Amino acid sequence: MQIKSPLFGSAEIAEDKIIEFPSGLPGFEHCKRFALLHEEGSEVHVFLLQSVDEPEVAFSVTAPERLGAHLEFPLSDEEVALLRLRAPEDAAVAVIVRKGDGEGQEPASTGLHANFMAPLVINTGERVGLQKVIGQLDCEITLRAKG
């Protein structure tokens, strides 16, 4: 399947590499199919989650561990069924990251921003995913300094 990416141009993606998000992503419910893209020939830390349905919709994603974070949160029975999860190790967790706009005077307005409160959960074997929007009391986030 040929897909278009604003960052990588046209890319050939095998049908069995497409990740289906049956409910879409919040605010992008019309986008149901995505592919994970990355620059060839370099160690991959950040992927581009590129919509197959809408070429202009793409998100930078990474594993929370790459940012020194460990996430633990429950999935409902409905979410487990949607993901077709048989075992926890079949799930991969990623967070959407974006670069700060740097327009404010505060240090928090620059740098990398990660959405830990709405991680992506992907069943890697079944290639199906969801974005889990969680409340502050529904999960545990541990941040560790890399050293």
Short description:
The chain is mainly β and 147 residues long. The protein is 5% helix and 36% strand. The radius of gyration is 16 Å and the shape is globular.
Topology:
Blueprint: E1 2-5, E2 9-12, E3 19-20, E4 33-37, E5 47-51, E6 58-62, E7 69-72, H1 77-83, E8 91-99, E9 112-114, E10 120-123, E11 128-131, E12 140-143
Antiparallel strand pairs: 1-2, 3-4, 4-5, 5-6, 6-8, 7-12, 8-9, 8-10, 10-11
Question: Could you walk me through the main structural features you see in this protein, from its secondary elements to its overall organization?
Answer:
This protein is mainly beta and 147 residues long. It has a single domain (2-143), classed as BH3618-like (Roll), CATH 2.30.290. 5% of the residues lie in helices and 36% in strands. It is built from 1 helix and 12 strands, in the order βββββββαβββββ. Strands 3, 4, 5, 6, 8, 9, 10 and 11 form an 8-stranded antiparallel β-sheet that branches. Strand 1 and strand 2 (9-12) form a beta hairpin. The chain is globular and about 35 Å long.
